[in-house]
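Suppose a classmate hands you a notebook page containing two proteins, each written out with its sequence and a corresponding row of structure tokens. How would you begin to make sense of it? This section walks through that situation. The first entry is reproduced here exactly as it would appear on such a page.
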Amino acid sequence: MEENTNLNKHNLQYYLNHSKIDVLFKQNKDDFVVTEIPLYDFTGEGEHIVVKLRKKDLSTWDALQIIADSIGCKLRDIGYAGLKDKNAMTIQHISIPKQFEEKINSFTHENIKFLETINHNNKIRIGHLKGNKFFIRLKRVSVMDAKKIEQALGKIATYGIPNYFGVQRFGAYGDNHEKGQQIVEGTLKEKRRNLKQMYLNAYQSFLFNSWLSKRVEISKLIDAFEPKEICEKVGLHQDIVKQLKAQVHPFKMLPGELMSHYPFGKIFIAEELEVESEKFYKKDRVPTGLLPGKRVKISEGLAQEFEKEFDKKTFEDGARRFAWVFPDEIESNYKEDKNWFELSFTLPKGSYATQVISEIIH
């Protein structure tokens, strides 16, 4: 497969068992389109103007700087909900103080187009989005591979995907987490606050991905082998293994799992594993994984045994993250005359479309 970045640079475990599908995927404005889904409807009145903009070949930061310079606004006064890919066509919403309305109306740029505007009461804040809709075009797809992709999409529609952080999280060379680890261990000093935080966030993300990959691997072993063999390989009690094998979903929930209602809700301990695993299969709730830190809820029992290896208390702030997500509104279209396979889907905020593609084409 040819691509701009290695989608699985850290050798994360896939949960689907098909062989690699050799196609062409490149992140560019024609083959990768991201459309932000706002968290709420905008009011139509207020001291901020919400601009729906379309950008190409620019990061969100670059686009915001161009807009700020053009209209004479301070960068910090522009609100946005999330950062969007540079190597894509992206549509998102930003907020600008109403005093710049005249300059907004006359703004032009070859890589940024203002599609519509509406007034709103508040500045848009980070995280104020429901999710994102993606359009992706894969090229050099044979008829046989198109069928394999369709089969993979069918399983993803039923079971979802591991909610790994994408390669974008780890920097251009995929090694920002190594600098974060060095900062945590005291072997690297980084005086620039924003860079230090970026490296630490990358290390937290790496630990989460590593934990999730291990759990996917264990789940695959549970599905593939008899209880006695699993006891020897993983060190789990045979009664527990039988419980886990009975779970319909390919990601096996463990006793003591910290769950969250899906797509949002409170975090709680899974008391009745059989009941909660059934609700997980029905997309009503999902297990969560740890972004380590001093102030964060910790799982219990067997789930905590598999989590503690990745729990570094040296981070100030930790969090729980969905271990699994369910792509929604999945549609696909195979253009045999061009050997193109086009697909679209939505994901909740914080999830990566590149991980959907990685799971599909391995």
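The notebook's second entry, a different protein, reads as follows.
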Amino acid sequence: MNNMLTIAKKEFQDIFRSRTFSIILVLLLVLTATSILVSTLVFKSQVSQYESSLALLLSMGKTPTEAAPQLYPLNLLRGVVDYIEIIGAIIGILLGYLSIAKEKNTRTMKLLLSKPITKKDIVFGKITGNFLFVSLTIVFVAAMILASFLAIGGISLTAVDYYKILAVVILSIAYIMVFFTLSFFLSIQQKSLSNALMICFTIWLVFVLVLPQIGDTMDPDNQVPGGFFKSMGFDKPQEKAVMAKFSGYENTRDFIEQLSVTKHYERAGFAIFGVKTKYNDMPFPDILADQWFNIVSVFGLLAAGIFADAFIMYRNREAWSV
């Protein structure tokens, strides 16, 4: 355990020495901070406009005939989920690549194993160190969200809102670590580090950008801004009745989307934050129950990735001879 923690500590410290990685990390933080700031200001403006209109109405001696609009602050976090989908995956890939590249480039694998350190210590020490760094990064993003809500927007959150943010924090860490384990595996499995990185970014391109975009493009409801069915005045039963006639098409579209871990992460994240409006008034346990498949898919792929990393570290003799 001590050896594993020592390697984890070294791995954590080494991350900060990579200039390229630092640039990508700063980019994620800047983009998410900008998204949060803009969304918070928009929310504050909406509240201010409503309060001004209400004050004007009351000053005229009139009583509002409609109930106050319900505003859901977590809806503002759609941009954060989008950025973690794309840049978070890149961070995971770079972490996995750098974790092995520095050992291969400096030829320290055999040196590590000449000490009383096992392969198990190495693989789980590296995973632990990177997991701690990813966790710290996502927790920092969550702290920025809460600070922006309170200090800039004057937004007060409920206990359930905090639970939802915590759930997406955990899901985001798992999502990024899926790409870490993929890059870690390929960086050992491939003789050429450049080939490993190229394969990783090809997978990133296909599963993070292409497949989700194909699924979104094939969705009939996305063909009109605001939703095709909404623009036609269809309610949910009518929408379901129409789509039932195209079940084969819809199943194919859904299958394409489900090939992507990014889409599983997005669906669960959007549901928890209420980006999909039907989840806004749904109890939190019911949201988790509704999204169980997407959540389990992300964590299942992470577990598979950790198993694959351990397997390849034990079986690949070339990793120890470089």
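A careful reader of the second entry would note: The chain has a mean pLDDT of 80.
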